[in-house]
Amino acid sequence: MAGAGAMRPRRAGTREGEAVNRRTPEWLVPRAPKRAALERLNQTFGSMGLHTVCQSARCPNVGECFGRGTATFMVLGDSCTRDCRFCAVRHGQPDRPDPDEPRRVAEAAAMLGLGHVVVTSVTRDDLADGGAGHFAATIRAIRDLLPSARVEVLVPDFGGDGAALRAVMEAAPDVLNHNVETVPRLYQQVRPQAAYRRSLQLLGRAGEMSPGAITKSGLMVGLGETEGEVLAVLGDLREAGVSAVTIGQYLQPTREHLPVAEFIPPARFGEYADRAREMGFRAVMSGPLVRSSYHAADLLSAGDRKTAPGR
Q1: What is the rounded distance in angstroms from the CA atom of residue 22 to the CA atom of residue 34?
Q2: Which class for 75: exposed (0-12), middle (13-18), buried (19 or more C-beta within 10 A)?
Q3: Domain segments of the chain: what residues?
Q4: Which of 205, 196, 256, 253 is nearest to 229 (CA)?
Q5: pLDDT tens per residue across span 9-52
Q6: Which of 97, 178, 100, 102 is nearest to 140 (CA)?
Q7: Distance between CA atoms of residues 195 and 105, nearest Å
Q8: Angle at CA 198, nearest 5°, toward 196 and 200?
Q9: Is the pTM of this model over 0.85?
Q10: Which CATH superfamily is domain 29-302 in?
């Protein structure tokens, strides 16, 4: 990739699989949640039988986002058929899809007064279409109830099934998000049931199927990658037509998950943001506590954000 050598390759100062032996830096301490906001949203989602990835994935920003009255809906249950070593969402045999869930998601989004609705799911390799039809039904339900809202979907790879992806794109989401998560060298260690090239192909196909939609992706850093590898991934995403990207620090959700190899300083997130802008990304959110859906509406409204705050 042209110009990738401008940033010196740096690796974590620990061996692969070895945890960082120091306290979590202060820039990774999230804001304390507002109890009233947490209780209100927990009650809303609980009463409607809905899940959020904010809670299931133990997102560090749950307090901030719930405090702002926003959340990312997680459809198709809360059990994933894959077992990625970075993810806190539980894995196992999922329940059958609930055909009424799309309507409830739309109603909850209306109750919260959302102008930008983000929907993701667990990976459902047990379903013939990977859950694509359920995504499409959810998009349409939101459109029916909130015609002025933007809809962003964060989808799994559907096993590379182009027909499944087409079903989602025909429902016309405003944003198609699919995370590559990490650099190719670390895939076997971090997400062994996924494939880097398959994810890039999905993103490229989504743009071809619906040129008016924004394609978006995200990756974690601090797993032992080099800066050169991060820049190479950004270059691959641009070649695939991706125009929005998020970059955040990996945090170990439990002792059973991969340890953190390196805490990336905020300045380096700024460097990544600068390089992403130079590559032509329309919107960039880069910061220690940034996650895929962090300030999703603000990111796209700003068009291009140089860097994100660390909290």
Answers
A1: 29
A2: buried
A3: 29-302
A4: 196
A5: 444 444 444 444 457 787 776 665 556 555 666 666 776 778 76
A6: 102
A7: 30
A8: 70
A9: no
A10: Aldolase class I (3.20.20.70)
Mind listing the pLDDT tens digit for each residue in 155-208? 999 999 999 999 999 999 999 999 999 999 999 999 999 999 999 999 999 999
CA pair distance 53, 75, nearest whole angstrom: 9
In DSSP notation, 137-159 reads HHHHHHHHH-TTSEEEEE---GG
First to last CA, the chain: 31
Two tokens, residue 101: 């869930």
Those residues whose C-beta lies under 8 Å from the C-beta of residue 302, and which sit 6 or more positions away, are 283
DSSP at 275: H
CA distance 52 to 298: 20
Residue ranges in the chain assigned as alpha helix (H): 35-47, 53-56, 62-67, 101-112, 132-145, 162-170, 187-190, 196-209, 227-239, 266-279, 296-302
- Max distance between CA atoms of the chain, in angstroms, equals 53
- C-beta of residue 253 within 8 angstroms of C-beta of residue 58: yes
The answer to whether the CB of 113 falls within 8 A of the CB of 106 is no
- Amino acid identity of residue 187, one-letter, is Y
